[in-house]
Amino acid sequence: MVTNKAKTNSAAEITHHLDMIETELDSTLTTVLCDATIRDIIHDNYSAQPETVDVKVLVEFLLVGKRFILHIDPDMPKLIVDRQLLRIIVGNSVSNAAKYGEVGGQIVITLKYSNSFLLLSIINMPGKGHEDLLLQDSSLVFKQGHRLHSGGDDDSHCTVSSGDGAWIMQKCATALGGECNLEFCSTHTEFTLALPATVPPSATMITAFVLPPDTHIIFLDDCPLQRKMFMHLQKPIFETGSSCQSRGCSAAEIKGFCEEMSQYILGRPNDRFLFICDENLVYADEETGLNEFMSGSMICSELRETIGPSMEQKTLTVVRSANDSKADIERFCQRAHGFVSKSAKKADIREQLATMFYKRFGVCGQGSDTIE
């Protein structure tokens, strides 16, 4: 019996240690991902990667301690948002509240979802030098290298370098289409974050998917029959959009597609754009008459880079190809936002486009049902 008990305790200890190792590895991976994201954000090389996130769990995980008072909407839904960007903003704003607020003082965090916006408020009591802060323009804290606080004795709690934390937080918020603000009051300091966010769509919304009226659809294919057939088959999805166009009938349209569409996008800053590009584009060279080839996925990649991060957020690029091996799809999805197979059935294409569209842009006012 003693031997069996010893073995049982040993097994329990092993499980405990394995759990601790898993937690440490997960924490290390999260830190590495955050650091990589921050680096890309600083150099404007990062585009938001929306996914379904349990925001309540994310915030509670970051705020463990007696000094934190949490007010979280009990009906807070899961939201489509970039997990890493939100983690960076929340982590650094709480770190700043703890560092610059009253030593050991309570920090009040309020989180709610209202009118399609995720709203976060973090309030800390006045810390050292607060009287001087009341005389300054709080918006300056979001400028690169600008620091309003005199600093503390220990910078180890900061996730990012001193002087750039708030600037990076604002860049993260901007990448999400939102905004950070900071207000110095006589009795407290309040940081606020407002982000547009949507709930995941229901299964019904995916099968009944149609494009919102502010969406432009552009289909690029070198084959006249493919252009005609695809646009006809997907007409129920496309006809609700603001415009539906096709390109690829000439060498000029294929070679000049990126430049033409860049201007088209930049001239419509309030709209969304869906590009569906055939991967294997063949055209006759106007001078030699020989067939030339262009990659639709490379065109998507060039277009995304040309229009810049702000407008790229409003764009969904999809590669269409008969090549659907794992390696092909991975390559296409590195260059574009998604992939549909030429062999896919009409209903399958609708479901695939709906899933990609909702993941990219959210529900866009078409309802608030969620997938269970």
Summarize the structure.
With 372 residues, this protein is of the alpha/beta class. The chain contains 13 helices and 14 strands.
Q: How would you describe what is shown here?
A:
The chain is an alpha/beta fold and 372 residues long. The chain has two domains: 11-196, Histidine kinase-like ATPase, C-terminal domain (Heat Shock Protein 90, 2-Layer Sandwich); 203-361, 3-Layer(aba) Sandwich (Rossmann fold). It contains 13 helices and 14 strands. It has helices at 2-42, 55-62, 83-100, 130-133, 165-175, 203-207, 224-233, 235-238, 251-255, 257-266, 296-312, 326-335, 346-361; strands spanning 51-53, 68-72, 79-81, 107-114, 117-124, 179-184, 189-196, 215-220, 243-247, 272-278, 280-284, 291-295, 315-321, 338-341. The strands form four sheets. A five-stranded mixed beta sheet has the order 2-4-5-7-6, covered by helices on one side. A hairpin with a 2-residue loop joins strand 4 and strand 5. The longest helix has 41 residues, at 2-42. The protein is elongated and about 75 Å long. Mean pLDDT is 83; it is low at 152-161 and 365-372.
